[in-house]
């Protein structure tokens, strides 16, 4: 994959289109904005630390492999399998979202029928090669970027009263229950925010199949800031301004299994762009297709990495000549058939359970990435390496990963407390929130016991001096400065020959 592919993989996502409405309905407009803001701060810290490691070590398996190198083999097993399940179980969630969007046009087909229509071509696309995935994601993400940009602009103009014949609400919705649900609603919104932010780490997973990762990964990491501000904070702000938290069009999956259309569609309709509703819904459908495509890529590549590391059956590590892990993709396809259970559980209930599972797994993965980054830096220093060897250096170490870990832990506890305050069966609510925790530590503890009973002689925690910085690195120790000098010389030669300059540099980046 090229730089532009990684950059747009870092930007595009579908969770915001559906779960943002649920957050506003749960916590109120101000509460939802604060929840997304806290998660955004946490996630951006995670992305910076992950970018630092992935730009130096663009290996298959990314942070799961980093867990094995800088913590221990059980952590690689745990992170790999939990991440695989996180994305494999996300496929039913995305297909449910697709059925919600398609039901806006017709309700003649059930959720499982829509799922078959969507999943077959998506699976076929994955069988081509990684370039096909990257190119598809690039164009689908571009469509989403255009839609969200239009949505923010139209939403703000409508709210300020700039649409003739459609007086905007102004700050009315912000004054009407800004913190609807109190702290419990705010804490409960964290799960929906985590679901929305899912996929920010895909850049690291795709780095192993990208061109010049020491350049492309840092660019994609920096693009994540644009994604956070435009895709999340501005979108949640506009929804909170334009749609009242009591509006039935918000995706209230937590108490209503009859899931309605996206709040993005609602805002366009309220602003008087009724004719554009079908176009908007079509774009939302493309966003869901993009997310389903990413689910197949992420889960199959992680399963491939696990097989290569000996943590999964070897047959799952087989690839075609084009690098396509067909056995791993077939396993992902089988797991995704869980979507058929939505016809039994009801779309709203299934959506909530899958959201909780993937949200908590994502949170635990992100916290683990920050812990790994601390060990990464400590091992880097212990082995006498210079920080100038890092293609990209995350700022504020060790404060950045430490604060990210603290924020993640606080939000994790807050969700558990919110589950006890939401009414209904408290035990069921707590299990629904922490089901991912049981999965995560079950995998970690189970693998440790397996190693003990199989007389594993290696260390449970890898010593700092033994951490591997060589295998799969973009350059050997001390090679960073030499590479930068070489690239600088190439740029100077290009300028001297009259084919570069700022315009030439911009053109070269666009082509890449």
Can you describe this structure?
The chain has 512 residues and is mostly helical. The protein contains 19 helices and no strands. The longest helix has 42 residues, at 15-56. The protein is globular. Residues 252-260 have low confidence and may be disordered.
Low-confidence stretches: 252-260
Mean pLDDT: 82
Largest sheet: none
Structural class: mainly alpha
Question: How many E strands?
Answer: 0
Strand fraction: under 5%
Shape descriptor reads globular
Q: Gyration radius, to the nearest Å?
A: 23 Å
Taken in chain order, the helices and strands follow as HHHHHHHHHHHHHHHHHHH
What is the count of helical runs? 19
Percent in helix: over 70%
What are the defining features of this structure?
512 residues, 71% helix, mainly alpha
Describe the structure concisely for a colleague:
The protein is globular, with a radius of gyration of 23 Å.
Architecture blueprint of SSEs:
Layout: H1 3-11, H2 15-56, H3 62-70, H4 73-102, H5 111-126, H6 130-159, H7 172-175, H8 182-197, H9 202-207, H10 213-242, H11 263-270, H12 277-308, H13 326-336, H14 342-345, H15 347-382, H16 399-421, H17 426-453, H18 479-496, H19 501-511
Helix pairs in contact: 1-6, 1-10, 2-8, 2-10, 2-15, 2-16, 3-4, 3-15, 4-5, 4-12, 4-13, 4-15, 4-17, 5-12, 6-10, 6-11, 6-12, 8-15, 8-16, 12-13, 15-16, 15-17, 16-17
């Amino acid at each position: 994959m090229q730089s532009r592919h990684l950059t747009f993989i870092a930007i595009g996502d579908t969770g915001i289109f559906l779960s943002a409405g649920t957050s506003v309905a749960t916590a109120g407009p101000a509460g939802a904005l604060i929840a997304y803001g806290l998660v955004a701060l946490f996630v951006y810290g995670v992305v910076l630390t992950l970018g630092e490691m992935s730009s130096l070590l663009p290996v298959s398996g990314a942070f799961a492999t980093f867990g094995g190198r800088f913590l221990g083999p059980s952590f690689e097993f745990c992170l790999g399998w939990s991440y695989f399940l996180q994305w494999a179980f996300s496929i039913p969630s995305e297909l449910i979202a697709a059925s919600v969007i398609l039901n806006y046009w017709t309700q003649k087909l059930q959720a499982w029928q829509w799922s078959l229509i969507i999943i077959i071509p998506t699976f076929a696309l994955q069988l081509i090669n990684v370039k096909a995935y990257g190119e598809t994601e690039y164009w689908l993400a571009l469509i989403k970027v255009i839609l969200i940009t239009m949505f923010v602009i139209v939403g703000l103009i409508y709210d300020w009263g700039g649409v003739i014949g459609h007086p905007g609400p102004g700050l009315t919705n912000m004054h009407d229950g800004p913190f609807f649900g109190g702290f419990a609603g705010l804490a409960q919104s964290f799960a929906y925010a985590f679901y929305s932010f899912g996929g920010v780490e895909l850049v690291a997973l795709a780095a192993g199949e990208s061109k010049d990762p020491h350049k492309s990964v840092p660019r994609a990491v920096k693009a994540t800031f644009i994604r956070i501000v435009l895709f999340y904070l501005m979108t949640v702000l506009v929804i909170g301004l334009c749609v009242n938290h009591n509006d039935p069009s918000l995706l209230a999956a937590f108490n209503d299994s009859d899931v309605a259309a996206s709040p993005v569609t609602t805002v366009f309709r309220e602003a008087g762009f009724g004719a554009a509703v079908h176009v908007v819904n079509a774009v939302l459908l493309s966003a869901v297709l993009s997310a389903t495509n990413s689910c197949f890529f992420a889960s199959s590549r992680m399963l491939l990495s696990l097989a290569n590391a000996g943590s999964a059956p070897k047959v799952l590590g087989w690839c075609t000549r084009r690098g396509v892990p067909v056995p791993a993709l077939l396993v992902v396809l089988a797991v995704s058939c869980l979507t058929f259970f939505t016809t039994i559980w009801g779309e709203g209930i299934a959506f909530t359970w899958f959201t909780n599972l993937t949200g908590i797994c994502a949170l635990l993965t992100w916290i683990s990435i920050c812990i790994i980054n601390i060990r990464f830096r400590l091992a880097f220093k212990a082995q006498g390496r210079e920080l100038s060897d890092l293609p990209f250096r995350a700022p504020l170490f060790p404060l950045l990963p430490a604060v990210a870990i603290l924020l993640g832990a606080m939000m994790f506890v807050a969700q558990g407390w919110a589950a006890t305050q939401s009414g209904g069966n408290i035990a069921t609510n707590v299990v629904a929130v922490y089901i991912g925790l049981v999965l995560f530590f079950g995998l970690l503890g189970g693998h440790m016991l397996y190693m003990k009973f199989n007389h594993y002689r290696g260390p449970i925690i890898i010593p700092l001096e033994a951490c591997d910085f060589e295998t799969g690195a973009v350059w050997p120790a001390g090679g960073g400065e030499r590479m930068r000098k070489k690239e600088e010389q190439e740029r100077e030669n290009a300028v001297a020959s009259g084919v570069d300059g700022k315009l030439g540099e911009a053109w070269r980046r666009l082509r890449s």
